[in-house]
Each structure stands twice: as C-alpha cells, then as structure tokens.
Design goal:
Order of helices and strands: EHEHEHEHEHEHEHEHHHEHEEHH
Strand order of the largest sheet: 3-2-1-4-5-10-11
Bound molecules: 6-O-phosphono-beta-D-fructofuranose
Strand content: 15-25%
Number of domains: 2
Shape: elongated
Number of helices: 13
Number of strands: 11
C-alpha cells in the first residue's frame, strides 16, 4: 500500500491539473494498492490538516482545465519557521499531518518559494517529490517549467492585438508582461509578438536609449513602436541603488507600475501618444496550451515512476530535452535568470530589438 499526499502551492498556472493527472494516472495504472490525499490551498492544507481523498474520477476531464483542482495559496518561506497567530508551529504541524496519514510521500507542485519549503520538509525527514510550475520559467535545475509556454501564448496574443491598433493610430504602446525578477516570459513573448523594445529585469535600461530607438523607428517611417516590458524592468540608475535606498524610493512612487513610469517619460520627452496595456493575471489563466499539456503529463508520469521506485528528494525537471531528476537541495533557493549575454538576447539584438542598454 502506498499513501501519497499532493498539493499545489504559490501562484497558479496552466497545466497544474495536467501534471497531477500525470502522477495519478501513472500510479493508479501501476496496479499498486494506493491511497491519495489532496491537501487544499497549498501548504495551508498540510499545516491545518485540510485535505480530501482523491480517486481516479478526480483526474477525469482535467487535462485541459486551467487553475488547480486543489486550490493554491502563497505561504512565504521567510515565515515558515514563525508560529502562526495561534502559536502553532507550522513545520511541526505539517510533519504531524504527514505522519498521521502515514504518508509514503508528498508530491508538491510549485515554483521557487514552494521549492524552498519542499526542501525544508525533505531535510526534516519527509519523502518529497516535486514538479516545476511557473509562468516565469525561473526555476533552477530545469530548462522549462510548465505554465510558461501557455503564458507566452497569451502574452504574445496581447502584443499581436496591440500591434494592429498601434499601427492604425501611430502610437507607442507598452505591453507589461508578468515577471518581477526574471524576464523569460517578456523576452519570449516580446520576440514572438515582434516587439521593437524589450525591457527585462536582468538588463537594466537607459530611458534615453529607449527613446533613441523610438525616434530611429520614426525617422525610418515606422510611426508606431511596441515595447514589451517586464513587471520588474529596472532603470540603470535604480539598479545601482542599494536594497534599502530602492525601498525608500519606492515609498513615494507615484506610478501603478514601471510601465506607466516609462510611458510618462517617453511622452514627456517626445510628445508621442503612449498607451499601456497590462494583461496581468490573464497570463496565468485559461487552458494549458498543447505543449504544456504534453510536458506536464510527461513530468507527472515520471514523478509517479519515482514514487513507485521509492526514490524521493527530487524535482522532476527537464534538461537538454530529457526528463531528469534533480536533487531538491540543488534547486531550492536559486533563481534561473536570463543571462544578458545569452544567445537568444544576442539574436534578438541582431534582429534590431533594443533592450534599452
Ligand atoms: O510567479 C508567478 C507570477 O505570476 C509572477 O509572474 C507575478 O509577478 C506574480 O506571480 C504575481 O503574483 P500574485 O498572483 O500574487 O499577484
């Protein structure tokens, strides 16, 4: 008999259900005697003992369904060792619930923060297997995360739609793409949508260079310009500030986000008509794209295989076009970022795309 617990934690994304279905189908098809428990709303469910039993029927019809059938929430790693408002030791509570249900393993689906807690639980002696989800594709140890390709599709659609209206009106348009720390989504959607300027956190921008590019396009007869700007895009000047100085500056920040600041500066310096579009959480919503359905199913089934073999303490990831198992201690606490000299960045520059640097 194997008893498996499963949870989805952190910001949701497409293909979470497809991945869980992959795990479940592999395990239920194995013929092994099995009990599966789904903890509700991420680690919260494990901490407070909120769970429900999962049967094969729970995984029927969910391959194409966005969101997560288990619900999700953010449980900040920084506070995981702090008692809750009633003095409950959260780590101890998670362990107790694991032992109470006599679980053999926890399957945890999540991004960066989730992996830090998963690794902590592994260190506390629990058997853990994880799966890499996030639209940001910023998880260390895997070339790809599920959710990413679906989000690229949505952000690209947004840029495509903006293209026609920007061209009709001869306007400068900024499409703000998700990603506070890492720019994979903006870079890929920006390239796919034919953006003229791409601003990502890893390559701080100079507003003068951004304006130069717009003026250059204007001189060459292109009356409109599209910018794909990551939520976490940062100017060269701000990138030089210490964490404390930056925090201080942000206290009096008057814009809803960096895109509006950039828009105001372009407008002020050039007099051009500038508009901002923020697709926001639509990038995390809706059905997973076919790539993500296949990808998440593959990773899920490989996770099931690891569990059947009793191999724990790994994230199932993807490297050099192979599904691989990566030790959790290698993954936790590291961010995968776009290297400013990555070949994709160089190729984008060859296409004439400006990064404002
Ligand atoms: O980590 C995924 C992500 O969608 C980021 O791209 C984005 O910055 C953040 O989550 C938004 O978080 P929330 O859903 O808590 O607003």
């Amino acid at each position: 008999m194997k008893r498996i617990g499963m949870l989805t934690s952190g910001g949701d994304c497409q293909a979470l259900n497809a991945a869980m279905r992959g795990v479940a189908k592999c395990l239920f098809h194995s013929g092994e005697d099995l009990e599966m428990y789904g903890f509700l709303e991420g680690y919260k469910g494990l901490i407070y003992g909120n769970f429900r039993m999962l049967t094969p029927a729970d995984f029927s019809g969910v391959l194409t369904k966005g969101g997560t059938i288990l619900g999700s929430s953010r449980t900040p790693f920084k506070q995981i060792r702090e008692p809750d408002e009633n003095g409950l030791d959260k780590v101890e509570a998670m362990k107790q619930n694991y032992y109470k249900l006599r679980l053999d393993c926890l399957v945890i689906l999540g991004g960066n923060g989730t992996h830090k807690t998963a690794n902590l639980l592994r260190g506390e002696g629990l058997n853990v297997v994880t799966l890499p989800k996030t639209i940001d594709n910023d998880l260390w140890g895997t070339d790809m995360t599920f959710g990413f390709q679906s989000a690229v599709n949505i952000a690209t659609d947004a840029i495509d739609c903006i293209h026609t209206t920007a061209a009709s009106h001869g306007r400068v348009f900024i499409v703000e793409v998700m990603g506070h720390k890492v720019g994979y989504l903006t870079l890929n959607a920006g390239m796919a949508g034919g953006a003229d300027i791409i601003l990502i956190p890893e390559i701080p921008y100079d507003i003068k260079k951004v304006i130069d590019k717009i003026e250059e396009r204007n001189k060459n007869g292109s009356k409109f310009t599209i910018l794909a700007v990551a939520e976490g895009a940062i100017s060269k000047a701000d990138a030089k500030l210490s964490k404390k100085e930056y925090k201080e500056k942000m206290k009096n920040y008057k814009y809803p986000s960096v895109s509006y600041e950039i828009a105001a500066k372009i407008q002020e310096k050039t007099g051009y008509d500038v508009r901002v579009t923020v697709p926001g959480h639509t990038q995390r919503g809706g059905s997973p794209c076919p790539y993500d359905r296949v990808f998440a199913s593959r990773l899920g089934s490989e996770a099931g295989k690891l569990i059947l073999k009793g191999e724990y303490g790994f994230m199932v990831g993807y490297r050099n076009r192979e599904v691989v198992k990566v030790p959790l201690e290698e993954v936790a606490g590291k961010l995968k970022m776009v290297a400013p000299d990555a070949s994709i960045v160089k190729e984008a520059k060859l296409l004439g795309i400006s990064f404002g640097d």
